[in-house]
Batch of 2 targets.
Target 1
Amino acid sequence: MLKLLEKIKEKRAVIGIIGLGYVGLPLAIRFAEEGFETIGFDIDPEKEKKISQGQSYIKHISSKSIEDAAAHLSATSDFSRVSEVDAVIICVPTPLNAYREPDMSFITSTMESIQDYLKEGQILSLESTTYPGTTEEVILPYIETRDFKVGKNYYLVYSPEREDPGNPKYTTRTIPKICGGYSKLCLEHGLALYGAVIDQVVPVSSMKAAEMTKLLENIHRAVNIGLVNEMKIVADKMGIDIHEVIAAASTKPFGFTPYYPGPGLGGHCIPIDPFYLTWKAREYDVNTRFIELAGEVNTAMPDYVVSKVSEGLNRSQKAVNGSKILVLGIAYKKNVDDMRESPSVVLMEKLMAMGAKVEYSDPYVLKFPKIRRAAWDMSSVDLKPEVIANYDCVLVATNHDDFDYAQILKHAKLIVDTRGVYREPADHVVKA
């Protein structure tokens, strides 16, 4: 009987990916591309159906990539089939609850669904972003219920996802992968597993170090975005274009990395991950003041944008109440269809609460989905000149490349620009 390392080397290991979303699907495709038999697990039967038909359900992932991987890729909602795989890779959401505390329910429910089907000689990797200690404190006890000797006949690692949806410069294969193991032997197996499909795998000394690495990456971004958002407000008061300043500062070849302001933070990582660390730090009597301050600044940005909408409408002696407002872009970032934690939704909520008549246009989200905080019966508006001219305000919330910004500039009565799309001054453009 082949050992796991030999199976991986010979591409005879069967790979199981649990969670076929923005992280799990591209990873499953990558393993299948390399010839590994890959089974995707998801509770959504629609994903199973789409994959069996060779169809993508994520905008930036092509159906062709699924078709090309079809010989080695399948999907199921039957978690008993975990007994068929040699590697279990968990890519499930890790949101915050209403109190900004880690919600481990997706991880625990996954482990409850699969623990009876784990088998000796497997490797299990958690990729979900979480606080340092999760893999050992939450995952390990489920494995130990099977009386496996983790590090001897079962292997446990943590390897955080690093997907950047919509960025064509980097792929699952070319983004370096961090991996930390429960033991040296666990790490050896993790490096072999990911090294078979990813160009560079970076080992760290422990699972906690790997978990902390992911948090540092995203907290670094959250803090710097908070800084530039605060700088934007100061610059605006002084009559300075923050985007001009960022462009000028970016010419410095050392010591400066450009970050860009916006209407708030969105996505499954940056608005959430910092609070995983602040929560865990309290266990050690540490106050993460710097991180929390950045969170306060970023969370307040939608209110700042709404004040700019009000300011712009006031110029025409109009109130927010009763005005027709078109929000451009409701995905959390440009050129993707991902709406998780999108600040656009917060903006829409706030404007509606003030009495505005709000609609949206987004070529990536043609029908407003049912999400946790909103379930509006809306569809994307077609941006014809006469349609644009019918709104009291066009709010640029997500700067998709598909929008015709010249046409919008020509026909809109008022534009509130949160993304620095319009660099040249115009009487009817308010920078926010």
Note: The longest helix spans residues 207-237.
Target 2
Amino acid sequence: MSLRGPTRFQRFVLPGLAFKAVVIGGGYATGRELAEFFLPAGPWGGVAGMVLATVIWSIVAALTFAVARTVGAYDYRTLFRSLLGPGWIAFEIGYLLFVVVILAVFGAAAGTIGAATLGAPPLAGTLALAAAIVAVATFGTGAVEELFKYVSFLLYAVYAAFLVLAVAKFGGGIGHAFAAAPPPHDWALGGVTYASYNIVGAVVILPVLRHLTSRSDAVAAGLIAGPLAMAPAIVFFVAMTAFLPGIATSALPSDVMLTALDLPAFRLLFQAMIFAALLESGTGAVHAIVERVAAASGRDLGRPARAGIATVVVIVCVFVADRFGLVALIAGGYRLLAAVILVVYVVPLLTVGIVRLRRPAPLEVLP
């Protein structure tokens, strides 16, 4: 941070990039989440569901950021003590479930990518991702923010290149898919479900909100976060429609499209970008737990403690990934998460959170 205070990038863009970093994850970056929640509604219905999810993200993120700044919450434990009082432990349980599922998805995705791209055993890719997450989380919030920033540059550049190549290579298939598609149907449920479990990303990134200087900063950053997070997904989804219906059941839709492009160098670059996206997503989720422990202890944790906490969390999730696999985790675990997050996060935010904004009260000091 400069002597002149936080930059506009830190105040308005960094929270959105951090939010994108959490939600892109294994299923979004590989296309598996998009196939699960949006392809069943057809091309137009899928786009409609994604627009709905974007609106939900922006509104809930803006409200979350505003409440967090009002009550001085830069870790999820502090925020939910304000929203739920003694019931804050309900969110803790829900969040730990969330972390187990998403890190398991990330680990399974890394294993699948390693196997598809390099022919390595799936566990090798999973363990490589786990080691990288621990390494970054060890160095604290500053290192995590740098990861969010630089991986975002890579990610948006690669998705932009992918859009150009996809339109040139199979634009005709995309056009046919949309022209032949029926009117949107059953799209709202997919959009709400997808938005619901992913919106917890707005809580995961609370540590980066320390740069906000006002409530208007918080609201603006939240509104920007939705489009920043969804733009690459829309690009990817539109390209996927050229491969309907077969791509809907693929464990790694990204590899289906990259194989069709038949550009080995770009395929490797794209898979490297996905790995980087998995890294920033996983690091964000683990870092939130580390910061929660630091807030509860009342002191800044040293690097050995950070490394220890991150290692325990990641190892547990690696075993879940190895046991269940990517498709099963997304199809089963994410819908359960959506219901949990709605009950313990979105409902309290839209009720108690709004009251907090109108009549903010100081937090009690924890014993």
Note: The chain has a mean pLDDT of 85.
